[in-house]
């Protein structure tokens, strides 16, 4: 399996300056390569490819040995590939008839990662599992940076990335041949229904609490954002206010990921087969389309109410939770099944009657046909489990 491991860096003051300079040089390279492509097509109708820009990079490094020539050639090639990937995604969206989203220039706050494609080429992971405090990562132009290695790194390190999050620096290792850690079989199966009141509800009736980390931090975050709005643009105080807002957002993100990891681990340890809904979270949280009234105005479309629901869904972190659950299930040898969520909350898990009226309230379900009554989320989770087991049986019989 391929897995990524993230550790915090402990750079010295000089190394922190060098890391920031490395990031800025790669951002400049990305923007210059984007402008090169735009200008070549606009003025001469020529499509510039990655191979052309990679060949030009050799001459740029030779002409600027103390600037671009200071950093790893492989990392700069990775930055050019990043731009090439953005253009390929743009053309794919155009071909599919979706909103194109042409690649944009990267501002200072929108370029925070530099990648080295191969361990040993401009970088070196120097791990000492018996002495975690003596672990370093060597980066060309920066030196040996101390790493806070809080866990062992299995497998073979393939790529190394350095990422800036606020005032902190992290190293991300992408490893191949990571051995699976299969858990003993339990013989249990479960369907899970994702929600806002509870992060997830199992078909056994267990509820995983939704911590609502953003709502908990909303007061402090609002105060920090008000302070930011009062600061003069370009001032030193505004930069400090921006950093304070970023720290609060980063804390919420870490708390949300920590809760998702713990919830996913509990499910993987308890069940051999886990069935969940195949949710399109991006579509569910998309802004409601405006409804023209034919007189130059717009009809009510429920956007105010939907905005609150969208915020709660994003605060729950369904996408991150399902991604983490899939990774842990693969590593533990568990079977994860995604099913169509249509009508799972309206269908009676006892008699199969489907009607909108069955859902009495957010947490209450009462079948209008057979009178069966239970918690709405438990009923939905049972339907999800049944649909997943049917898919599994059909696949095994095929």
Strand and helix layout:
Layout (H helix, E strand, L loop, with lengths): L2 E8 L2 H32 L5 H14 L9 H23 L17 E4 L6 E4 L9 E4 L3 E6 L7 E10 L2 E9 L12 E6 L3 E5 L4 E3 L3 H4 L1 H12 L6 H35 L2 E5 L3 H4 L6 E2 L5 E2 L3 H14 L1 H15 L2 E5 L24 E3 L6 E3 H22 L1
**Count of helical regions:** 10
Major sheet characteristics: 7 strands, antiparallel
Cα(first) to Cα(last) distance is 27 Å
Strand order of the largest sheet: 2-6-7-1-5-4-3
pLDDT < 50 runs, ≥5 residues: none
Give your account of this protein's structure.
By secondary structure, the chain is α+β, with helices and mostly antiparallel strands. The model has no long low-confidence stretch (mean pLDDT 92). The strands form four sheets. Strands 2-6-7-1-5-4-3 form a seven-stranded antiparallel sheet. Helices cover 44% and strands 20% of the residues. It folds into two domains: 174 residues, no CATH class; 158 residues, Nucleotidyltransferase, domain 5. It contains ten helices and 16 strands.
Provide a short characterization of the protein structure.
By secondary structure, this protein is of the alpha+beta class.
Q: What keywords describe this structure?
A:
seven-stranded antiparallel beta sheet, 20% strand, five-stranded mixed beta sheet, 398 residues, Nucleotidyltransferase, domain 5, alpha+beta, globular, 10 helices
């Amino acid at each position: 399996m391929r897995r990524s491991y993230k550790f915090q860096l402990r750079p010295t003051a000089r190394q922190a300056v060098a890391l920031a300079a490395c990031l800025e040089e790669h951002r400049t390279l990305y923007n210059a390569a984007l402008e090169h492509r735009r200008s070549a097509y606009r003025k001469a109708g020529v499509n510039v490819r990655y191979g052309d820009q990679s060949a030009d990079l050799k001459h740029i490094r030779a002409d600027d040995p103390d600037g671009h020539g200071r950093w790893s050639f492989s990392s700069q090639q990775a930055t050019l590939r990043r731009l090439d990937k953005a253009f390929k995604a743009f053309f794919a969206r155009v071909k599919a008839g979706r909103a194109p989203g042409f690649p944009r220039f990267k501002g200072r706050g929108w370029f925070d990662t530099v990648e080295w494609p191969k361990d040993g080429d401009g970088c070196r992971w120097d791990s000492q599992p018996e002495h975690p405090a003596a672990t370093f990562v060597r980066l060309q132009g920066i030196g040996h940076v101390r790493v806070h290695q809080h866990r062992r790194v299995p497998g073979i390190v393939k790529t190394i990335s350095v990422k800036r999050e606020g005032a902190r620096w992290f190293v991300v290792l992408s490893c191949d041949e990571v051995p699976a850690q299969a858990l003993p079989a339990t013989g249990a199966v479960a369907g899970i229904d994702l929600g806002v009141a509870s992060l997830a509800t199992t078909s056994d009736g267990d509820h995983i609490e939704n911590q609502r980390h953003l709502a908990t931090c909303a007061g402090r975050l609002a105060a920090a954002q008000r302070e930011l709005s009062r600061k003069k643009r370009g001032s030193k105080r505004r930069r400090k206010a921006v950093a304070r807002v970023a720290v609060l957002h980063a804390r919420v993100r870490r708390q949300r990921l920590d809760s998702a990891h713990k919830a996913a681990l509990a499910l993987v340890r308890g069940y051999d087969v886990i069935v969940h809904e195949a949710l399109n979270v991006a579509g569910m949280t998309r802004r409601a389309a405006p409804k023209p009234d034919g007189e130059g105005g717009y009809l009510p479309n429920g956007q105010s109410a939907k905005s609150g629901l969208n915020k709660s869904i994003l605060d729950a972190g369904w996408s991150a939770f399902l991604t983490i659950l899939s990774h842990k299930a693969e590593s533990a040898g568990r079977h994860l099944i995604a099913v169509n969520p249509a009508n799972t909350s309206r269908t009676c898990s006892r008699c199969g009657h489907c009607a909108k009226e069955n859902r009495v309230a957010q947490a209450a379900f009462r079948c209008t046909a057979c009178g069966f009554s239970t918690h709405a989320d438990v009923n939905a989770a049972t339907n999800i489990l049944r649909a997943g087991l049917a898919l599994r049986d059909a696949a095994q019989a095929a």
